[in-house]
Amino acid sequence: MADLYLYNTMSRQKMLFEPLDPTEVKLYTCGPTVYNYAHIGNLRTYVFEDILRRVLEWNGYPVKHVMNITDVGHLTSDADEGEDKMLKGAKREKKTVWDIAEKYTQAFLEDMDRLNLLMPHIKPKATDHIDTMIDQIKQLEANGLTYTAGGNVYFDTSKFADYGKLAQLDKQELQAGARIEVDPNKKNPHDFVLWFTKSKFEDQEMQWNSPWGKGYPGWHIECSAMSMKYLGKQMDIHCGGIDHIPVHHTNEIAQAEGATNLKPWVLYWMHGNFLVLGKDEKMAKSADNFLKLDVLIGKGYGPLDYRYFCLQAHYRKELVFSWYALDAAKTGLRRLREKVCNLGDTEGEIHQSRMEQFEKAINDDLNMPEALAEAWELLDDSDISDADKLATIKKFDTVLGLKLDEPIAFELPPQIEQWIVERNEARDNKDWGKADEIRDKIQASGKWIVKDGQSGTEVMPK
Ligand code: AMP
Ligand code: ZN
C-alpha cells in the first residue's frame, strides 16, 4: 500500500495516515444545517470531503462515512448567540421547522447527487438522536464538567485541561475573554450551552423532556454524541470547513474527550478553506451573494463544471469565485471529456507509471490541481495507446469524479446536420471528392471535427 499523507490541523503538519483499523476507516464530516439551500461555498467543503473519501478508497481502505443533518439547535452565531437558524427558515417561508428541515434536506441530497458526491453510509438527523445527546450530557455532568445557570446547562471549559488545543487558543486569550460576552450566565467566556431550557425563542417548536427540564440541545453536542454512536469512542478523520476550528470542533473535542476521558478522540482533523467572492468577502446565505447550485445551472453551467472548478485549487487554499474562472473550468472539463470521448470504446491496460504519478499527487494531501495536470498529460501522451489511456483515465476518474467517460451532450446546428446527410449520401455514392469537400466545409469554422465512424459521418466539438 502506498503512503498517504494528510495535513492534520491538530499538529499543523502533513502526517502519514495510519488508521486505527485498516479494515474500516472511520470518517465523520459535519453536515448541513437544513434551514436553507446550501451555497456553493458550503458545497466546496463537501467536494473536498468527497475527494478525501475517494482517495482513502483508492488506497484500499474501506471507509465508514457518517455525516450529520443539523435540524435543531444551530444559532446564527456558532457560539450560542443570535437567532435559531431553523426558526429563521420557518418564519421566512411560513412553514413548520419540520417542513423546512425536510425540504432542505432533500435539496441538499439532490445537490450532492448532482455534484457526484458519494453518499455517506449513515446520515443521522439531530432530532432523531436527542436521547443520545442527553446521555452524553449526563456523562459530562457525572465527570464534573458542567454547571447549570439561568436554566441552561453549560460546559465548564475551565475544568477541561486542554480546551482550545485545536485552534491553539492560548490560556491568556481564554482568560481575557477575547469574545464579546453576551450571556451573563457563563462563568468563562468560552463556555457553551449543552442544553437550553430557558429558550430565548418563545416560539421554539422543537422541545424535548430532559433531566434538566423541557428544552433542546446546543448545536455542538449532536456531532460528538452521534459520531460516537455510529463510529465508536475514537475515529480516524473528522472534517469540516475552517470556520469550525475555533468554536464547533473545539467544543466537540471538549465534549467527546470530556465524556470518555479517552484522548485523542480524533486522530486526524482536516479542514477545507473557504470559497470567497472577492477580496476576503465570505459567501453567505444572505440575499445578494447567495449563490446556490441552481443559480449556476440556470446560467448554463453543469454541476460538474463547478466540481472541476473546485479541483483546480488545493483544498487548504482560499478559492476566489468568479464567472470568468467558472467559464474556464467549463471549457477545461469539456475539452477533457472530448479527449476521453475520442479514445474510442476499447479499454486496454492501466499505464503503471502514469498511475503512480497520479497517486503521488492525490496521496500528497489531496493535491488535486496536480492530479488534474496528470490527467491532461496522460491524454496528451502520444506514446500511450488510446485503449490504455481509456483504462487509465477511468481509474483516475474514480477519484476525480468528473464522469469523464460519459457521452458528451451537444447540439449540432441545423446546417451541420444537413451537411452530414449530404456527406453520407456522397459516400454511399462513392463520390469521395464531394465527401471531402463537405468535410472541409464542416471543419472550416474551427469548431467541429469530422470522423468516419461505423454508422457514417460523425461530428464532434473540437
Ligand atoms: P453549514 O450548513 O452552515 O453548517 O455549513 C456547512 C459546511 O460548509 C461547513 O463545513 C462549513 O464549514 C462550510 N462552509 C461554510 N461557508 C463556506 C465557504 N464560504 N466556503 C467553504 N466552506 C464553507
Ligand atoms: Zn459538527
Describe this protein with a few key phrases.
alpha/beta, 3 domains, about 15% strand, binds zinc ion, single chain, elongated, about 450 residues, Rossmann fold, binds adenosine monophosphate, 4-stranded antiparallel sheet, Isoleucyl-tRNA Synthetase, Domain 1, 4-stranded parallel sheet
Please describe the topology of this protein:
Elements: E1 5-8, E2 13-16, E3 25-29, H1 40-58, E4 63-67, H2 85-93, H3 97-114, H4 130-142, E5 146-149, E6 152-155, H5 171-176, E7 192-196, E8 216-217, H6 220-231, E9 235-241, H7 245-260, E10 266-272, E11 275-276, H8 293-298, H9 303-311, E12 319-320, H10 323-341, H11 352-362, H12 368-380, H13 386-400, H14 414-428, H15 432-443, E13 448-453, E14 456-461
Helix pairs in contact: 2-3, 4-6, 4-7, 6-7, 9-10, 11-12, 12-13, 14-15
This protein binds adenosine monophosphate (AMP) and zinc ion (ZN).
Mean pLDDT: 91
Strand content: 5-15%
Cα(first) to Cα(last) distance is 40 Å
Radius of gyration: 26 Å
CATH class category name of the largest domain: Alpha Beta
Helix content: 40-55%
Principal-axis shape: elongated
Q: Compounds present? A: adenosine monophosphate, zinc ion
Stretches where pLDDT is under 50 for at least 5 consecutive residues are: none
- Summing up helix and strand content along with how strands pair, one would put the structural category as alpha/beta
By CATH's scheme, which homologous superfamily of the largest domain applies?
HUPs
Task: Give the number of helices.
Answer: 15
SSE topology string? EEEHEHHHEEHEEHEHEEHHEHHHHHHEE
* Major sheet attributes: 4 strands, parallel
- CATH topology tier name of the largest domain: Rossmann fold
DSSP, total strands: 14
The number of domains is 3
**CATH-scheme architecture of the largest domain:** 3-Layer(aba) Sandwich
